[in-house]
Amino acid sequence: MDDMYREVILDHYKHPRNYGKLEPADISYEDDNPLCGDRIRIDIRLDENDRVKEAAFSGKGCAISQASASMLTEEILGKSLDEIKQIGKEQILELLGIELGPTRLKCALLSLKVLKAGAYGITDADN
Amino acid sequence: MTDSLDLSNLRADFPVLAREIKPGVPLVYLDSTATSQKPAAVIEAMNNYYRLSNANIHRGVHTLAEEATALYEGARERIAKFINAKSAQEIVYTRNTTESINLVAYSWGRANIKAGDVIVITEMEHHSNIVPWQMLAAEKNARLVVIPVTDDGELNLSRFESILEMGPKIVCLTHMSNVLGTINPVAQIAEKAHAVRALVLVDGAQSVPHLPVDTQSLGADFLAFSAHKMCGPTGIGVLWGRKELLEAMPPFLGGGDMIRRVTLTEFRVNDLPHKFEAGTPAIAEAVGFGAAIDYLVSAGMGAVSGHEREIIAYALDRLEEVPGVKVYGPRAERKGGVAAFTLDGVHPHDIAQILDTRGIAVRAGHHCAMPLHERFGLPATARASFYLYNTQAEVDRLVDGLYEVKKLFA
Predict the structure, then answer these.
(1) Looking at chain A, which residue has its C-alpha nearest residue B377?
(2) Which of B25, B353, B375 should we substitute to test contact with A (largest number of A Cβ atoms within 10 Å)?
(3) pTM for the whole thing?
(4) Beta strands in B148-220 (DSSP E)
(5) In the annotation, is B368 catalytic?
(6) What percent of chain B stands above pLDDT 70?
(7) Selecting from 3.20.20.300, 3.40.50.720, 2.40.37.10, 3.90.1010.10, what CATH number does the domain A2-122 have?
(8) Closest chain B residue to A101 measured between Cα atoms?
(9) For residue range B116-129, what is the model confidence (pLDDT) as tens digits?
(10) Among B48, B95, B151, B187, which has the highest number of CB atoms less than 10 A from its own CB?
């Protein structure tokens, strides 16, 4: 579908929001999709109420994985970790505004997987 | 044998090539390295088998069982002739190339590899010719040594010379890379390997479908290939091995058909090739495989490889016109019909997805060769691959599609 490369997705891919690393961060997690080699890291800083104050992502990947990570880092500002744990794949697809087959769904959901692992307190050392 | 194929007639042999991906957008199938399309003759042969002759093979006395056995064994005879094997006994049916390699790693490997022995593979192997050897090496405490790939995408043969001094037991290499398209000098490598008494296993998954392959001049001791990449069905492949090696190897899987005699305490193995074919095999698939062989023989393997040489030369020229495109592997005259490429600023998955909207089927990813991609510092590539039914006009559509991709991502 040409729709998959909607203007908003290409815009987030070409001009990613919150791209980079936060050092130090309260939460950091990184993972990859071994099928395509896409790799995403998400860093989060929390405010005094344990809500997301800053979020950043880094890594390389296709337009879908990069755009969803970029959108997600905007979406979670102000959210608590419990709220992050409630985010489902429907919300990611809603953000992207497209439908995806099973292969590309993995691209779209990589950033959510990374984000949730971080929210649940998993660290690289556990992986 | 003709030098060029009559493409208009030949394309009509493949029903799926008439398919439109969406109204007005015909399929451009450039993924034959993953699996080839099937001519109607193959589909009909399997269909007819099920409609008319379906029965279990061997030991049956009734008409259908005899017909099924004749079809199954007849296909084996034609496969043997196709690769110029000395005897059909050297043709062991397996599920695919992967299973053929595993058969050698389990049967020959477990019987012959000891702690400290050296097993040689190359950096351009498909995972199916890496992982079975890693498993064997780990189990036996053997050493896995790798022939590296040069920047041009060829095997580093001077490194191979020094590896030979380690006295390897077996050298396992692909005849033709499924990513770079590199055609390796198997005969030259085998001669050197045999000089130090190492065996040579060749992954022929990409070569047997695309090049004339003669097991009596190839130099290999084992050759593995799959039907589905050569106009045949999925689910069946072949391990060819020199008879004296296969004779000496212990069986792989145990069960029906691989035995001559069974008591409750012991068994005696059957003769070759049945010794390695436990259980009811893929009979309809063998019938389809036989039909695929007939099809390729009538096209002429010389003509098939000649056609692919022309089309890859044209494809490389046209791909290199596109700014930002980089194709990996050797020059056209040193490779088969495979072009793995990247386009600056666009992930291969996005390339493949956008090309798909234009009906063009290419593959994106690591193509089951992660170590090779790592060697070139790439997480993934897009790959266009060609077979006897592809045309230069399809290459043009690929290139037009890549310009569209560039426009979208500009």
Answers:
(1) A37
(2) B353
(3) 0.93
(4) 170-174, 199-203
(5) yes
(6) 99
(7) 3.90.1010.10
(8) B353
(9) 999 999 999 999 99
(10) B95
